Amino acid sequence: MKIKLLSNMYPSQKDLLFGIFVKKTVLALEENGAEFTQKIVIKGKRSSSFQKLLTYTTYYLKAVFSVFHREHELVYIHFLTHNLPLISWYNLFQKKPIVINLHGSDISAVKQNSWIDKYQAKMLKKAAEVVVPSQYFKAIVQERYPDINIPFYVYPSGGIDTTIFYPELSKRKSLSISFVSRIDKGKGWRDFLSIFSELNTNGTKIHATIAGDGAEKESFLEAIKNHSYNHLIDYRGFQSKEQLAEIYQSSELFIFPTQLPESLGLVGIEAMACQNVVFARNIGGPTGYVESGENGFLFNSVPEAVQQIKKYLALPKESKEIIQHKAFATAKPYEAQQVASNLYANFKTLCSTS
Q: Residues in domain Glycosyl transferase family (predicted)?
């Protein structure tokens, strides 16, 4: 099966995390037999407005002229907002099915009933299928655009590699909580430090392991430096998948304090695959897979998170193990090879019926 990819986000050597989901999806589809006849992408971020203008101009020109390169059977477009003109263009000049993969912010960051929002609704109607990361986000899109009568397909952001993310309980040497995230505005790192501080202040000696990088890293490092319990904090910066798995495996509790309506929140599922108990803010994607009190816990504030954690720690060992096993079971359907195989089969079916 031959696919043409259009994406304004793709990793570069400098920006390894920028569009990593797109790259993971491409590699997974290729492993299942897909051939990408063209990959028209923007690799990495640009620091200046001039660089962004130049990069996007080049991207649009390549994409516009590539419409006449027709070896593909399907056009796979990632991120709706920045590709709106290209969807119009491709729909005008070719009859191959167009699949639009929504990421989250291409809907949540667009003001409802604005001209862009109305333009997005119009372009979504031209798609043969819309790919979303979760059932939660599917419901958000359908509520936002009730007049769109096209198929939706749930593909959980590439899924998780269970050959890497799996339980290794022998690595749990001491009580530890972990936080894996971009160190950016709205991701909740300040709340994580507050939760960690409250637990230790109230007599629960607990270690913290943190992984991630981002725009607020400098403020984050300053906060750690001045933290009362900084000797119990292990900050590791950007980590590979294997290194992240080691963090999850060494922790019993994973804190997911994001203040943003994440479309899925894959890190929470990675942690569950390592038999972590996830404490997630009651917002966005995690509400679709965390059942509070069953396989994890949901909270609305720092005090509530602290209360939930103390409640969990006070449980008998057998009760804790039941919650951990339920968390592990929740992660199983997100296995990467299976979800990629299902996506590829879905694309083949889509092309055969178009």
A: 170-324
